[in-house]
Amino acid sequence: MVSTGANLYHDTHFAIGLTMHVGSPFADDVQLRKEQIVRIYDIVFDYNVLLSTDAFYREVMKAPEFQRNMSTAEFHYRMGAYVREREKLLGSKRRSVLATAHEFGVPIYTSSPGDSSIGMNVAALALDGNKLSFDVLADVNETAAIVLAAKDGGGRSGVVLIGGGSPKNFVLQTEPQIQEVLGISEKGHDYFLQITDARPDTGGLSGATPGEAVSWGKVDPEALSETVVCYLDGTVGLPLLTAYALANHPPRPHKRLYDRRNELLDSLHRRYKDASEA
Amino acid sequence: MVSTGANLYHDTHFAIGLTMHVGSPFADDVQLRKEQIVRIYDIVFDYNVLLSTDAFYREVMKAPEFQRNMSTAEFHYRMGAYVREREKLLGSKRRSVLATAHEFGVPIYTSSPGDSSIGMNVAALALDGNKLSFDVLADVNETAAIVLAAKDGGGRSGVVLIGGGSPKNFVLQTEPQIQEVLGISEKGHDYFLQITDARPDTGGLSGATPGEAVSWGKVDPEALSETVVCYLDGTVGLPLLTAYALANHPPRPHKRLYDRRNELLDSLHRRYKDASEA
Amino acid sequence: MVSTGANLYHDTHFAIGLTMHVGSPFADDVQLRKEQIVRIYDIVFDYNVLLSTDAFYREVMKAPEFQRNMSTAEFHYRMGAYVREREKLLGSKRRSVLATAHEFGVPIYTSSPGDSSIGMNVAALALDGNKLSFDVLADVNETAAIVLAAKDGGGRSGVVLIGGGSPKNFVLQTEPQIQEVLGISEKGHDYFLQITDARPDTGGLSGATPGEAVSWGKVDPEALSETVVCYLDGTVGLPLLTAYALANHPPRPHKRLYDRRNELLDSLHRRYKDASEA
Amino acid sequence: MVSTGANLYHDTHFAIGLTMHVGSPFADDVQLRKEQIVRIYDIVFDYNVLLSTDAFYREVMKAPEFQRNMSTAEFHYRMGAYVREREKLLGSKRRSVLATAHEFGVPIYTSSPGDSSIGMNVAALALDGNKLSFDVLADVNETAAIVLAAKDGGGRSGVVLIGGGSPKNFVLQTEPQIQEVLGISEKGHDYFLQITDARPDTGGLSGATPGEAVSWGKVDPEALSETVVCYLDGTVGLPLLTAYALANHPPRPHKRLYDRRNELLDSLHRRYKDASEA
After folding, report:
1. Is D116 in Cβ contact with C137 (below 8 Å)?
2. What DSSP designation does A56 have?
3. Taking the model in full, what pTM does it have?
4. Residue of chain C whose Cα is closest to the Cα of B27
5. How far apart are CA B232 and CA B226, in angstroms?
6. ipTM above 0.95?
7. Does residue D161 contact residue D193 with C-beta atoms inside 8 Å?
């Protein structure tokens, strides 16, 4: 999973007992600012929600286990343990993404680790001498390794894209990292499903079609006719898709890819060496 | 300046003598892939353009000056020197962004340093033992320091946003980094101009209005009535704006913010300490 | 109901035993044209489907009952009887809009009666001396009369807008017709629900907000906070809404507004006279 | 020219000495309604502007020359004479569309004559016994006749589409009216230029591509590669295009198509008879 930091940060509010409220996108923002109310489109919450969440993250990130450079997958996994503990303490019925991903060993990456309140707090701690920092190169190689491993023995890989932006590119660049940069022979992802409002004509990657991805080797040409782009709000499309999947498919064993990161990275390294020497 | 790596990477093609061509967004991408032609909406180019640009970046990034952790501003500045040299050698009339920013001391940040062919090549080199890596926390603090310095002595700051995505948030989060995270008293940016196709109703940050930014302290409430959002293709809006600015304003002395990074960061650090002790 | 002629025309294909097929929006249209295949986004069908439907409409419209000027509601009602008969003959399970509206006395208006294959065929028949023509002024007054009647005795009116365009304006202009033009005291529609992809910022009526409608008297200011605009594809939003309505509300008696047109129009006329003389 | 009635109606405000003002799309519409201010996105004006313009139209439309059924081209041409007279009287420097089109014999059609304040006022007058009504079938045949005449002797036709909606379809259906409905052999428009925000994926005609139009015979397949769709706000695109055209091309003699309507219609009629008998 690749997410912006903002999605993970704001999801944490609920996990640590804070609340957000339904508001209006047409609110008077000058008035909101005066009353210390923060707005995200039609969601409103108290400025203290930010301050409390910041304090939570900073407190946890001072722990000894965070005093080093690590991939964002490791960072999110370690944070997830603390978030989960807090959820249990509060008896919360709602499960946060970080805590759930921790429990099931799902690695969560972010392509822009400095770009969010999480990154901002890590940066502030760094001014104080804290040793936590992000290994973005590990993120690039680990995500490529996960894709390459999926292909082993005739396996298949696919991408599910809710929205667009930097996370979309980060997920898709796994194939060029394997083929174009590391020189390993590969054909592209086998499945491509995007739910987005971004249209191709702006020329940006958010709206780039599966066809364009084929021209880069990101998607297997033979898979193109089965790719799907759905121009829909993700808050409508994802629940429909999820309900359908849960209703039509029994649970599958967890892959626990987080636990296998080193093994997969070693395999990528070997394939890269083989390709370089060929 | 905050840019995606992709914009900087593809701009480099021209600087090192490679070419891209006008194509069609309706091309047959399976055929393009067969013929090793890569497409970005209505731009097409040979796959070798990627391989040659990758080789250029990797060769430069093996130099001793790149064998350490650095902010993306420093990385782009140092790369810019090599790109500029290559442009001079080729007698190119066209000036790349990296080379021009190097010459005029304009710091260029990227909010997602692993997310682009540049980041992919740095990651590949890391598998070989190369020591270059990105200090994303420095990026966060340096950009906040630049904004805080602009405000000194009653100065003003502004943001010009072409498009949206992670770079938009990274530019705007400078104010919450100053106020919410570092606890320094501040009021928000004084100018906000966005040219984008992203609408507010999707709820994402790309289309978030200046009003929403006011509720976060990103934009000064008193400046709200003068903010501008222009729903227009950036390739139409930016040239119009640039032509207008060049025609109506004499050149100003360069600020050379890149050269002043350490000084500005020291100042941010002091203000943070003062605020923490208050 | 206000519909474009195109929606009613293409819906008729199924009613008279013709078929349309799932295709691709990325088809080669020059090739399609050569093979006499017509495309509407991702729907394809044989050119003969148009010719046969044209022939069906022309044949019916030569009947004596169509040899005069009439409102589009009357035209669609009368056509609906023929379409229904054909459906019964074919034993079709699928019910067309025209036939169903005929059966339940739902008046269907079109705001642009010349703009569609239906209008084109009526125009062609006129070249041959056929006497059918459209009374667009009756459409304007009848739709206003329906709204005014809904308000009688403290009743309420509402608009459900799937898409935008001319039909949206035609539905909403009923209130200005009552208030601004006929001078009858009224406050605006009580409910406003739109499912559309049209955003306000283009300045057109398709994306105009309920708020803008309030400033015109089209929507009751007191109802504004309950209005809904849903930026969603109608093919997703309408089925969700319909399923919800059918699951949560028992059937209601039919209003058969078509049958009451003259009575409602008389009432509008009286109220207009009263207002003029006041 | 095919326009909505709304564009022509609101353009008339200036011609008869009324004013509209720059406002904000974020105004409080309930307050605006209380103060009798009407809003169109970021334009605001007094409710009396509507009442005065309505009165102007109604007064003119009571004249003997309007006491019959006529095409919208004739209606707009005749109205244009009155609007022009008023402009002269007021010494207005600004020229309205109706007055200018009258002067140069440019026929203006509307595809939805009942759908606008103009149509609403005509409908209200009809309740009083006024005899003016719209001949929508004449509109359909006249527009087809203009296109067919453009093709005579190897001539060429083209469409310039600013926006979309019903006017777009009305302009494009001229070719199916000629080919599919009247059975006259023809190949489609030679030029297609659209400036719009409507994307193809919604499936509507507003965003339908020139390719889709080729599959219908609306655009000549051989012309497809030269068609242009520009996803841009018309208020930006049209001035750029107009300035370019005026700067790069000397004035051409006026075609005065309005004056030639009967002749062109006769020619269409003859070609239709010939085709029917073949």
Report:
1. no
2. H
3. 0.95
4. C26
5. 18
6. yes
7. yes
